[in-house]
Design brief:
The chain is an alpha/beta fold. It has six helices and 17 strands. It has two domains: 180 residues, FAD/NAD(P)-binding domain (3-Layer(bba) Sandwich); 123 residues, FAD/NAD(P)-binding domain (3-Layer(bba) Sandwich). The chain binds NADP nicotinamide-adenine-dinucleotide phosphate (NAP). Homodimer.
Length: 329
């Protein structure tokens, strides 16, 4: 790590994650004059980039495709000189310093190690799996976690969507562009999704519902042929729904495994951040879908990220001894 200490490879802030939160943090940090590096995952994509239509990000009255929105974010960050590197981060640890040296961190990726005074975690979350027989075996053979990616394969076919949240309902609506029938399997008798989405789905002629039902197995020979469900209230209604595709949208798992021994997380692995987006580790900030919070949206990710970058800036200025309050009068 000794070689990392030269000024070339030493950053004020390293941002981990290339989704809306990471890019917004990068925009604020680089525009704020910090020497900033954003590491975007090699083996992961931001969820928003596979979202067909974002209808609730202000400023786009017609809605905007998620991929296009992120490209716009990138264009804007580049105007302020943010360096973006593709690397999967494995470890974040304290950098050993000479006595009296600034407190800093090493972000260790697969391709390099990056020394930094502050870290912003913006690693987002990934789709949770059901963990039922057939799910893994038929992954890519009818089991999907991305309607935008795989929906067009199901033209005039029948598909099952599992889940009752915003993602399940929004993606079910998207799938009606292709599939002749979409059955939403939900474990309760009402949807969790926001009312505007519920209304569209409940009145859609090609969407059916299997209420109070859980998936027991995904069945087929080479490809998915059916989804076996169990009705939790009335076993007589348990059945196999004939389907060519099974789209699973049962929530998220935060991408925080690599950092759980460094910052405090809640019982589900979401990072605990205060209102200034500080984590339990001094110099590490967090924002977006990877933190414990009420509402996971692009707009809230961006808001958190602006705060995280500002807090990181104050932290860096404090360490360098050039903070406004530390300058005296
Ligand atoms: P979510 O809100 O956590 O919903 C997950 C759904 O899956 C719930 O209906 C849950 O059932 C069900 N579920 C969980 N585990 C299950 C299991 N093992 N078997 C069967 N069903 C299971 O997740 P999400 O829909 O992915 O949304 C994540 C976040 O992104 C939310 O904050 C959401 O508002 C946001 N989002 C917003 C939009 C939008 O605004 N347009 C679009 C997409 C996502 P229960 O209801 O019984 O818990």
């Amino acid at each position: 790590m000794e070689g990392m200490r030269n000024s070339e490879s030493r950053y004020d802030v390293v941002i981990i994650g290339g989704g809306p939160a990471g890019l917004t943090a990068g925009l604020y940090a680089s525009r704020g004059g910090l020497k900033s590096l954003l590491l975007e995952g090699e083996s992961s994509v931001s969820q928003i980039t596979v979202t067909d239509l974002v209808e609730n990000y202000p400023g786009f009255p017609e809605g905007i495709n998620g991929y296009d929105l992120v490209e716009r974010f990138k264009t804007q960050t580049r105007q302020f000189g943010l360096t973006i590197v593709t690397d999967d981060v494995r470890v974040v640890c304290r950098e050993q310093q000479a006595p009296g040296g600034e407190e800093s961190w090493i972000v260790q990726g697969n391709r390099g190690a990056y020394s930094t005074l502050a870290v912003i975690l913006a690693t987002g979350a990934n789709w949770r799996h059901l963990g039922v027989p057939g799910e893994e075996a038929f992954a890519g053979k009818g089991v999907s976690y991305c309607a935008t990616c795989d929906g067009p394969f199901y033209r005039d076919r029948e598909v099952v969507v599992v889940g009752g949240g915003d993602t399940a309902v929004q993606e079910a609506l998207f799938l009606t562009r292709f599939a002749r029938k979409v059955t939403i399997v939900h474990r309760r008798d009402r949807l969790r999704a926001t009312p505007v989405l519920q209304k569209k789905a409940l009145s859609h002629e090609r969407i059916e519902f299997a209420w109070n039902s859980v998936v027991e197995e995904i069945q087929g020979e080479t490809f998915v042929e059916g989804v076996k469900i169990r009705n939790l209230k009335n076993p007589d209604l348990s059945r196999v729904i004939p389907a060519d595709g099974a789209f699973v949208f049962v929530g998220l798992t935060p991408n925080t495994e690599f950092i759980r021994n460094v910052v405090d997380c809640d019982e589900n692995g979401y990072i605990l951040a205060d209102s200034a987006m500080r984590t339990s580790a001094p110099g590490i900030f967090a924002c977006g879908d990877c933190i414990a919070k009420l509402l996971r949206q692009v707009v809230t990710a961006c808001g958190d990220a602006a705060t995280a970058a500002f807090s990181a800036q104050l932290h860096v200025e404090d360490l360098k001894g050039d903070s406004y309050s530390g300058r005296g009068i």
